[in-house]
Amino acid sequence: MMDRKALIRAYREHRPTMGVYCIRRRDTGRAFVGASVNVPAIFNRERLQLRFGAHGIASLQRDWNALGEEAFEFVLLDELDWPEGTPDYRPTDDLAALLAMWKERLALTPENTYAPLARRGVAT
Fold this sequence. Notes:
By secondary structure, the protein is an alpha+beta fold. The protein has a single domain (16-105), classed as GIY-YIG endonuclease (3-Layer(aba) Sandwich), CATH 3.40.1440. It is built from 4 helices and 3 strands; from the N terminus they run H-E-E-H-H-E-H.
């Protein structure tokens, strides 16, 4: 068993999975695609918001309520690795580029996408 200091060091050095993810409706393929520095945490957040009826994307929430959780899948589309030896790495630009690539690759249109509303005057 590791001692307390080793456990703390391991916790601080742990890097969560970051990348591009998708919440996809199984029968139609309609999807929401997003990016996060902590994909497991965002999956938990998205799933909890949907279960409690509090998701910010009304069309996704309506479909979830009508069809149930089993009608959807949560998928990690692409993982972005944390660069070694760069503790000050800020992945924002890299994640944005990866997200744009996946949106283009999936040929997302308004008809097959769960799109969030524009926030504070900025389209997302």
